Amino acid sequence: MEAPTVQQLLGLAVVREALEAAWDDSLADDWLLRHEEGGWIYLNITTAAISIRRAPPGGRASVNLSSPPVVAGAVVVATFHTHPNPAAEGWNTGPGNDDSASAWFLGVPCIIRAEDGVHSTGPDARRGGLSGGHGFPPLLWLPNGADR
Amino acid sequence: MSESPATIIQADEALRRAQSDALNAYRDLSPYWIRVVLEPDGWHVDYQPKSPGMKGGGAHYVIDAETGGILFKRYEQ
Fold first, then answer.
1. Cα angle value A45/A49/A50 (rounded, 5°)
2. Domain of residue B17, residue span
3. Which of A40, A86, A101, B68 is 20 to 30 A from A146 in CA distance terms?
4. Which residue range forms the structural domain that includes residue A112?
5. Taking CA B15 as the corner, what is the angle to CA B10 and CA B21, rounded to the nearest 5 degrees?
6. Which residues of chain A does B52 touch, with a Cβ-Cβ cutoff of 8 Å?
7. Minimal Cα–Cα distance from B3 to chain A, Å?
8. Do A98 and B25 lie within an 8 Å CB cutoff?
C-alpha cells in the first residue's frame, strides 16, 4: 500500500466533506468571528480506510496542527485547514511560503480550503510512504545536522 | 556641495507603523515572531509563525525609511 497523493485524497467524499465542514465552521462571512479551522487526514495501514480528526479552532490567520492525535493503526497522510480571509481585503487566499515550509517540514501534503476553492502545497504524498509510525513521518536528517 | 543625508526612521518606528496595520488585520500577533531589516527599498517588517507546525502566515511590509509610509504589504494566512 502506498501513501495517497493529494489528488487521490481530494477524490474522496470523506475528505471533501471534511474540507467543507471546516470551511463552514470558519465563519468566513463574519468579519469579527472568522477564524481558521483544520485537522489531519489519516490512512489506516491495514484497512486503507481514511479518517479525519479536527484540531481545536485556530485564530484569524493560523491554526496549530503540530500535534496530531494518535489514531490506532493509522498514520497522518495530509493536513487540511482553511483560509477564511478574503482577497477583497488584501489577503492571499492560496498557500504562502509559511504554509509550504510547514508542509515540507511536517512531511505531508497541506490542503487548503479558501473562498476561491481548494489549494495544496508541500509534498504530493506523505514523505517516505506509510512507514514511520503514528503521526507525521519521521524527521528528515540532513547532513549539516539540521533536522527535517 | 554635499547633500544632506535623508532622515531615516528608526526600526522601532517602522515596526510601530507595521504593527498598527497588522493588529487591525490579524487581531492577535502572538503566534508570530517579527523580523525588522533595513534594506535599500526601506524597512522590511515580516511576521512569521513561531512554530513550523503552525499553519498560517503572517503579514509582510516594506516601510518607507524616510516617511514611515507603507510602501508594500501582503497578508498571508
1. 105
2. 11-75
3. A40
4. 6-121
5. 140
6. 66, 101-102, 105-106, 148
7. 38
8. no
Q: Are B58 and B49 in contact (CB under 8 A)?
A: yes
Calpha distance A88→B22 (Å, rounded): 16
In a domain, B40, yes or no: yes
Looking at the domain assignment, is residue A26 inside a domain? yes
Helix/strand/coil (H, E, C) string of A134-146?
A: CCCCCCCECCCCC
Q: Give me the mean pLDDT over the B29-51 stretch.
A: 95
Which of A134, A141, A20 has the alpha carbon at shortest distance from A77?
A: A134
Residue with cell 498598527: B20
| Residues A108, A129: Cα–Cα separation, whole Å | 10
Q: How many domains does chain A have?
A: 1
Position A128 scores a pLDDT of 92
Give chain A's end-to-end CA distance (angstroms, integer): 24
- Successive 10-residue mean pLDDT values, chain A, 148 residues: 96 98 98 96 96 97 95 96 97 95 95 98 96 85 55
Residue carrying C-alpha cell 503566534: B31
Using the Cβ of A96 and the Cβ atoms of chain B, whether some distance falls under 8 Å is answered with: yes
Chain Cα centroid distance, residue B68: 10
The closest alpha carbon to A36, from B49, B46, B47, belongs to: B49
